[in-house]
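Each letter names a residue; structure tokens follow underneath. Both lines appear below:
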Amino acid sequence: MDRFVCSIFLLAVALWNGSALAGACAEASYNLTKQEEVDALGATGCDVITGDLSVDKSADVYNLEPLVALIRVEGAIKISGNTSLLNLDGLLNISRAGSVEISENTIMTNVDGLIGLLEVGALKISTNAVLRDLGGLSELASVTGDLTIESNPSIVNLDGLRGLIRVGGTLTIEDNNALQDLDGLSRLTQIGTALTIKDNPALTTIRGLSGLNAISEVVASASALEGGSISPASQQVLPGLAAQFTVTADDGYSFSAMTGTCPAGSFEGSTYTTGPLTEDCTVVANFTSIASFTVTASALTGGSISPLFRTVEEGGFATFTVTPDADYSFSAIGGTCPSGTLTGSSYATGVITEDCTVIATFSSNSGSDYCAGAPAGVICDPNADGRLNPGGNMDSWVGLTWGFENTPIPNGKTVAYPFTANAGAVGGEGIMTFTNNMPDLTSSHYYWKGWFSETPGGAVLNNNAPYCRRFSPNPNPQEMRWTQSADPNRFACNLGQAERVMYFNMEVACYEELPSNVPEDEKNCTVGAPFPGIGGFDEYYIKVYPR
């Protein structure tokens, strides 16, 4: 009996002595990277760490059971990046911590070692590849800061959080590929700052959040500067969500920027969506005045243009309808506006950057002024089958593919077609292709000629430029070209910059057998040379294709 009493006394003394040894650990914070360091801390028997406890990026630590005496960590607990640690069993007596982070532990399958945790400032469970559940957190009732559960591909549910009632900060549940429901949060009633749930592909319901009755909303207040409006004036949204506003610019203004304190967002049409909101903020719509210019239109004798003016925003275009009078043809567009394009009867200017004018010019179709004084032997055609009309601008030929057939070149005659050279915008280049329309004529029997002149059938403007005059057998095809440019040095055929009536001349000449050894450039026919009938024909027909 005395021996038994003595034994009880000795045990009590031992327990009292052990309790007397417990208390704050010697160091404020501990970063344990080796198992022997874990063992050494555990051997001290201390139960409170006033700073942080970290087991970080270790391949050596595999067992935290020596830390079983710990009951509180006033700073942060961080168990992260460990490749040999299976569980947290040595932490089961810790009831409170400033924050807890369990992340990037490659073989950790559970957090049962946190079973004693009742309250924590912030909790983050992240990027644990084989962590299956959160069962060790079943006693946790409050997270005063943020709770984050993200990038844990094996977690199926949050049942381990069934005791959680309050999150004081932001609750984030993100990128958990296998997570199917949130039923483990059924007792959660309050979130203080924001709720974010996204990128959980297996999650089909959020019914587990039905107990929420208090999420503090945030307010986005909107205003607009001069030149437009924004509505509504404010929006209240749950933390973590975005606010939407409609932005409208007044006439003569365009939206320029969104400023304010709300997180930057994006536009879809006139709807502006902020970034996710976490606090009250402002959006301010800014607008800028759009410069506008007046384009004034007028027409010279021979036609009309409408409307007579247009107001155009900077960088825009002005369009007009051009209509020739009877017996007149459209000639060119002049004025100070940037040159544009004519499609049918519709003319569109170039880009407008200042006030400018558009002037439509027209040419008479009578032809009396164009062919007066044509010498004998020259047929001056003022109408040219409706294609090379007098005053017609060669620019309009560029890109055309039409042609007119059976235009006669009579025996011993030159045919002259008047046109207006260099009218309208410079910069165009044209090509006229001639194709024989009489297959029985062969290259050994005739030569055709084509050239530009200032009078009907007159002298070649530039005899040295091959594309300004042509002489060739059997034109299948042959080309004559002209160029207009703002640089007078680039004008072909001596057409020059001045706008004036010019003539395009065609003739078939030199019906004779020429020896094969005569160089091509010496087979020059003289304008007006004798032209006998060819094989009984009195006319030579040619196809003309301006393009």
Observations:
- The chain has a mean pLDDT of 76.
- The radius of gyration is 47 Å.
